[in-house]
Amino acid sequence: MIASTRAGHADALEEAQLAIFPTLEATERFNAAHYRRHVTLFPEGQFVALDGDRVVGATSTIRRHFDFAHANHTFDEIIQGGWLTSHEPDGDWLYGADLGVIPAYRGRGLARALYAARQELVWSLGLKGQLSAGMMSGYGARKHEMTAEAYFEGLRDGTINDPTISMQQRIGFEVRQLLPNHLHDPVCDDYSVLIVLDAGTDVPGAVRPEGARTAPISESTTAPRRG
After folding, report:
1. In a domain, 227, yes or no
2. Rg (CA), the chain
């Protein structure tokens, strides 16, 4: 079940972070105090996946204005020490700071359901869409075979299957730009990819409210690509 995050989930969410992102630098993982603050900062943007009362997945989001002509940014710049104070209450994009499911529950469609919940929020708030920086999580094991740029191009043309980015592409995200030195994790050799899901895109499991926009937002999707 997907539900809104509550302050009472905070301790379980901190534990889940360790299971979901075991190799991520500790300073870039959220703790219980962070989660309690997120619920206060932007309550409608926080979701958990539950098995009964057990927290088995989650996503943390904020609203942001975003300049696609100057898209380079770091995870640290977004999370602001974990407190997500880069949140802009009038931002026109929903920015996914993270999303994850604990290993034992992967493959059950929970990540897709969390993305669907985010897309429903995009529609209800009248935003332009979702964007995020997806970890290029298959690259760390192949960094001695190819450059990050070559791996990224393989993602764009579909010749490379990445455990994280390719799943996001199947949901409907568009791969936009390589983000070097985005975060600190050997799994991706610190590389992420800017990914965009327009408000005009249907996501399996997401239900549009009556009157929600259905046309793609051209001003964002025509931005130049780099990388």
Report:
1. no
2. 16
